Amino acid sequence: MSERAAGSVINASARASLWLQPHRIVLIAIGVALVICAALFMRWDWVKDYYWLALQGIWRTLWILAVTVVLGFMLAVPIGLVQVTGPRWLSWPAYWFCTVIRGTPLLLQLWFLYYGLGSLFPQYPWIRESFLWPYLRQAWPYAVLSLTLSYAAYEGEVMRGAFAGVARGQLETARAFGMSRWKVFRRIWLPQATYRALPTIAGETVLQLKATPLVATITVVDIYAVASRVRQTTFIVYEPLLLLAVVYLCITGILVFAFRKLEARIPNRLG
Amino acid sequence: MQIPKRDAAVHNGDGSIEALIYLAQTSVVDLLALSPPGWGGNLLRGLMNSVLIAVGSFSIGIVIGIGGAFGKLYGGPVTKDLLGLYTTLVRAIPELVLILLLYFAGTDLINRLLEVLGYQRIDINGLVAGICVLGIVQGAYSTEVIRGAILSIPQGQIEAARAYGMSPGLMLRRVTLPAMLPFAIPGLANLWLIATKDTALLAIVGFNELTQETRTAASTTKAYFTFFLAAGALYLLLTLFSNVIIARVERWARRGVYMETH
């Protein structure tokens, strides 16, 4: 334990000295100079008119990301599982679901659901009279649905590999201990598979964040849509886009950091 | 063009029932016919454009990737840091934002440069701009893929090549590139599939690739369902066809290589 602590201290000091190499200092200085130039010489007067809308946009982006990742993961677990252990009539549709979703662009799926299904629904009076109709008329359910399906397909493929990768002996041991199949799944199989898949899940979640601006094309006002609106109303091109890039960078950074913390908590002797 | 009476009712907006009857009369076959009253030809042209952009951007990406990987592995400290910045930024910012930024900034910069040099402004071809922008995005990912592949080459092979007195260029051509290929192909294959799908993003800057053509066809005929399904089938066929080719290429690249199965 103490060895490990000493190692981390050395690591920390080594990391500090890495950042303070001469060429790094020059690069950082250039970067800071660029940021100051951007702040001084570019137009930022629109920010005060739009910051509230932008905050709402960021909130909506984060909210869509969180909902679709959670729902998508919940869908991905059965999709991965049936492909490893399920009967043919379940594994076959799951396989084709993954293939079709992963084989077509998300933008097309989004437009297919929003324009395609959206244009079919009003034809049926019983849908128009149902309690779901007020939601089906809005754009965000289609955005959430298509992002969820997309995440589920990509993550289902990952979970399939992760489920298959858990050592057989572990599951047999658990059965030998007299655990029911459900308990084996809940206590052994799912946690171990999730641990294994966690680095990939982190990557997929960042990709999911990068997919969220597509919802702006079906009139959901996320942060990307706010930036587009600024561009269209004020004719300022670069500033909103740069700020948008910075916002996404920050969110990505936070996601990566959070997943790294999560990974560090996992016992690293997996068998 | 004169609008027939029935269509006029559709355009008024109160004739949704008429619109439906109208839709039911034009069959799927008519809509997807290859010659002008049908939109099949437009879809196929869009698919061609998509494939063209994908091939172009993937090639640019690989060139950037090879250069970037060597820069990251063997370059000086500044090169390494700048390449690290490039790959991190590109992989952290949504492609859509990058496309807009590079599209506007790129065309703007080139035109300003031309003006400074005393030439006239030029209109940059949407196809070329699209290929370049997606190529830069692909380059960041393939840099990482190729870097990983080069690191997986058994160190002895590169040392042996050095011991034979090969120049760096010869070593690259004869040893490093062929030896890294089997390790790089799964990652590069993935990137190719991403490239084919990322072409859809150019629809947002109004480029006439498959998704944009589909949208135009669908909004003109109001047959959204048919056209988006058809386009989905085309993309899926492209992916499945690519998978077949990729499997062959992989077998070819792995010939004579003993690889441990995990």
Describe what this molecule looks like in 3D:
The complex is a heterodimer of chains A (271) and B (262). Chain A has 271 residues and is mainly alpha-helical. Chain A folds into two domains: 1-41; 46-265, MetI-like (MetI-like fold), CATH 1.10.3720.10. Chain A contains twelve helices and no strands. The mean pLDDT of chain A is 86. Chain B is mainly alpha-helical. Chain B is 78% helix and 0% strand. The model of chain B is unreliable at 1-15 (pLDDT under 50). Chain A binds chain B through residues 21, 23-24, 27, 99-100, 102-109, 111-112, 115-120, 122-123, 206, 209-214, 217, 224, 237-238, 241-242, 244-245, 248-249, 252-253, and chain B through 16, 20, 77-78, 81-82, 89, 91-98, 100-101, 104-105, 193, 197-201, 203-204, 211, 214-215, 218-219, 222, 224-225, 228-229, 231-232, 235-236, 238-240.
Quick summary:
With 271 residues, chain A is mostly helical. Chain A has twelve helices and no strands.
Main sheet properties of chain B: none
Judging from the principal axes of the Cα atoms, what is the shape of chain A?
flat
Strand tally of chain B is 0
Number of helices of chain A: 12
Q: How many distinct domains of chain A?
A: 2
What integer is the average pLDDT of chain B? 81
Q: Can you tell me the overall shape of chain B? A: globular
In percent terms, what proportion of residues of chain A is strand?
A: under 5%
Secondary-structure-based class of chain B equals mainly alpha
Under the CATH scheme, which architecture of the largest domain in chain A would be assigned?
Orthogonal Bundle
